[in-house]
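[09:14] KT: can someone run the structure on this one? pasting the chain below
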Amino acid sequence: MGIGASIFMIVAGAILTFALNLEVGGVDLDIVGWILMVGGVIGLIFTALIWGPRHRSVATREPTEYRRVEERSDL
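[09:31] RB: done, structure tokens below
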């Protein structure tokens, strides 16, 4: 689950829990909302643990190659 899906689950759960006062077919939407929020938080934590510690930059001390740049005046 990605960050976007986790945030979507948290928002959808908060809407179901705090904004709606409906009962649909004997299903308590408050409980469904809390379950969605908890699942979203757990997904957000797992996503941060999996994608957070990766190093995405490579540092080199010497240039890998030299390039010669020439200006053209063919205008």
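[09:33] KT: thanks! The beta strands are 23-24, 27-28.
[09:34] RB: yep, looked fine to me
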